[in-house]
Write a structure and sequence with these properties.
40% helix
Length: 82
């Protein structure tokens, strides 16, 4: 699983990344985390606000710092396990 955090690298981006890492750990999964700070690349995801959570190239959230439990639920609903 590839998880991208889109944003400028601000404190909210760091919080979202930490919460995503906690969610992945709670699910017992492995993931590669990528920080995307280039705004031209961020705009390719058609989002208007950051931070954004992207899992396997699907935008799951934008403009919010989600809790680990919320991220866990979103991953469970949106990711096909192999």
């Amino acid at each position: 699983m590839i998880i991208k955090i889109l944003g400028s690298g601000c404190s909210n981006c760091a919080k979202l990344e930490a919460n995503a890492k906690e969610a992945v750990k709670k699910l017992g999964l492995e993931a590669e985390f990528i920080k995307v700070t280039d705004f031209k690349e961020i705009m390719t995801y058609n989002v208007m606000s950051t931070p954004c959570l992207v899992v396997n190239e699907k935008v799951l959230s934008s403009g919010k710092v989600l809790s680990a439990d919320t991220i866990k639920s979103l991953i469970q609903m949106n990711v096909v396990y192999q």
